[in-house]
Amino acid sequence: MPIYYKIICSLTISLLACGAAARDWPDWRGPGYNGSSDETGLPEKWSQTENVKWAGNTPGPGSGTPVVSRGKVFITAVDMKNKSLLGMCFRQSDGKLLWSNNIGKAFRNIPRGNMAAPSAAVDGGRVFFIFDSGDLAAFDYEGKPLWKRNIEEEYGNISLNFGYSSTPLIYEAKMFVCVLRRPEPWREPKDRTELDSFLMALDPATGRNIWKTNRPTNAVNESFDSYSSPLPFEYNGRKEILLMGADFITSNDPKTGKELWRYEYSPNKNPRNRNIAGLVASKELIYLPRPRGEDLLAIKPGGSGTLDESCIAWKYEGPCPDCSTPLLYDGCLYVLDGMRKKALSCLDAETGKLKWQGTLSGPPIYSSLTAADGKLYCINEEGKVFVIRAGGEQLEIISEIQMNGKPANASIAIADSCLFIRTSDKLYCISESNRQ
Q1: Any idea of the CA torsion for 58, 62, 68, 69, to the nearest 10 degrees?
Q2: How far, CA to CA in Å, does 59 sit from each of 20, 183, 210, 406?
Q3: Which helix (H) or strand (E) segment is 13 a member of?
Q4: pLDDT tens across 246-297, in order?
Q5: Domain coordinates of the chain in residue numbers?
Q6: Omega prior to 66 cis, within 30 of 0
Q7: Burial class, 396, CB count within 10 angstroms (exposed 0-12 / middle 13-18 / buried 19+)
Q8: What values do phi and psi take at 427, rounded to 5?
Q9: Rounded distance between C-alpha atoms, residue 125 and residue 135, angstroms
Q10: Do 39 and 414 form a contact (C-beta atoms < 8 A)?
């Protein structure tokens, strides 16, 4: 075959692969780590039968967001009957359960949560599951086991008051696992009484540590605990892994683990300042929702060492989230206080100026907003989905759809012009009925 034909074929395959990947939802916050997607043709309304492409059964709850990659949908679940922790794979086209692997034992009762809170992570050929038990396992896309380890057995109890929920991050050919916890364990096992918080990088192929670095803090009591996940960030050619929790935001070099900078966002040492909502970033700013809905900070990147207040570009002091990670979409930052006022605020992502604010009625919203096709989607604890018009001058709720199965705490995923919605006992694929 002539060399130019080989080049054309290689380019064609690469472009097809890129196109397929662009239609996936490979991270719990989507392809851009910000809760949004470029997908179009998404539904505005549906019912239990209309626009439901398929509905798959799950054996029990799981708070992790569905992850969609190369024609497969991955979720975590607690099998309540058999007291086991499962990694599950459904076929994206029709919802057929392709495999379900038992990864660990469900031996803890988590208040207002479960042991399957982290989402799956993927690298295009392997899928990774982690649970509150410390079980961390890798499989190929056909369900073949590749490796397994238990980081709780290695490094002590990782369970927080409401369970471990940090999702592994796949970035720069590494898997990053974060454990931010108090020095003494919340619950059994309590065989170790001096626990370190840490970030570690693993080889996705083998599960072996590439590096592990401790994360020091002067936090007190519950403020040690972080439920959020690592976030990748790049500024002026410098790649970083951002962590939020234990009163600090920190940045680490993904190659070496070296800490690049830190900022103390909670210097008053409130003993109850555990953080749940996570970070999101644009190209120019890092958005940090301070614990318990205190406010939201926009941090200027590019610093080094210990940063002071000069790193703050602006602050938003309106209703802010305790649980829901902010959404960045089409130049706007959406901030959802799903616990107290149920207030949704739309801010200019560059300046922090409030564009509009409105209220979502009903029970608490523990999930995070997702967006695509000019619409925002979120689901409350009792399974009601809100479809909201993005942008505009005021809150416009397009529709409200009640799904079966509560509690529903997983964020909604978007891929291939479909919505993937997780409730306590179902995984739904929602799409326009006239779409093949």
Answers
A1: -90
A2: 30, 34, 35, 13
A3: helix 3-22
A4: 999 999 999 999 999 999 999 999 999 999 999 999 999 999 999 999 999 9
A5: 52-431
A6: no
A7: middle
A8: -120, 115
A9: 20
A10: yes
The CATH class, in words, for 52-431 is mainly beta
Residue 434 has pLDDT above 80, yes or no: no
Token pair, residue 81, equals 């009957």
Q: How far is CA 250 from CA 175, 225, 257, 264, 327, in A?
A: 18, 15, 11, 9, 21
- CA–CA dist 327, 179 (Å, integer): 24
**The dihedral of CA 408, 414, 415, 417: what is its sign?**
positive
Q: Quickly list DSSP for 267-291.
A: TT--TT--B-S--EE-SS-EEEE-G
Tell me, what's the pLDDT at 436? 53
Q: For residues 345 and 354, what is the distance between their CA atoms, to the nearest angstrom?
A: 7
Span between the terminal Cα atoms of the chain, in Å: 37
Residues near 15 by Cβ (< 8 Å), separated by ≥ 6?
none
Per-residue pLDDT of 341-392, as tens digits, reads 899 999 999 999 999 999 999 999 999 999 999 999 999 999 999 999 999 9
Does the pLDDT at position 16 exceed 60? no
| Tokens representing residue 253 in the block | 């070099």
In angstroms, rounded to a whole number, what is the distance separating the alpha carbons of residues 408 and 422? 7
Using alpha carbons, select from 139, 171, 124, 167 the residue that is nearest to residue 22: 124
Contact between 70 and 86 (Cβ < 8 Å): no
**Is residue 162 classed as helix, strand or coil in its secondary structure?**
coil
- CA 280 – CA 362 distance, rounded (Å): 26
Please name the residues in contact with 319: beta carbons below 8 A apart, sequence gap of 6 or more: 293, 335, 337, 340, 341, 343, 345, 357
Distance of CA 129 to the CA centre of its chain: 13
